[in-house]
Amino acid sequence: MEAHESVKTALAILILVSRLGDIGSTYLASPRLELESNAVIRRLRWPFAVLTTLVFLIPWWDVGSGIVIMVASLLVAASNSSKLWLIRAMGENEYRALLVRMAAAASPVPSLIFSLMPALFMGILGATVMYLYPSETTDPGYHVGLGIMGYALVVACYGPLTFLRYRKAGLTQPASDGRVHP
Prior knowledge:
The chain is mainly alpha-helical and about 180 residues long. It has helices at about 5-30, 40-50, 65-80, 85-90, 90-105, 110-130, 140-170. The longest helix has about 35 residues, at about 140-170.
């Protein structure tokens, strides 16, 4: 997909804003990265997270890929931001402790299914957009749909993994009465 330099520049700015939104909302929610779902970011910490802003250069290589990254990053930033008020009110430790307690108490199979439902609905939306704009070479909408699909894939991977990580932590920590959960 060929694009004018001004489109590439605008897209690069939007990607940078979306990445900064993702990183900033993550920092506001979890400065110690206790709530971060992405294991790579948890391991490599903030320097790597900041390094991901360099994806703003991608539109000058491929506009379609830039659109995909922008859409997925905006959706991640929106999701992170939707929880900020509660996390900031409770604090990172208390919010994580609540998630760990609830994951330990929840039935695993329905909880895993529920954690996959947002990915299913996002995937349907992404597939619909791609269906409505089928040309990868002439339809920017195709790449918007692909970005939504990319976000759906992220949610499908990290949702269940995060639930299982919290569940494991909850089942291995002592209960309030000092016993370890069965």
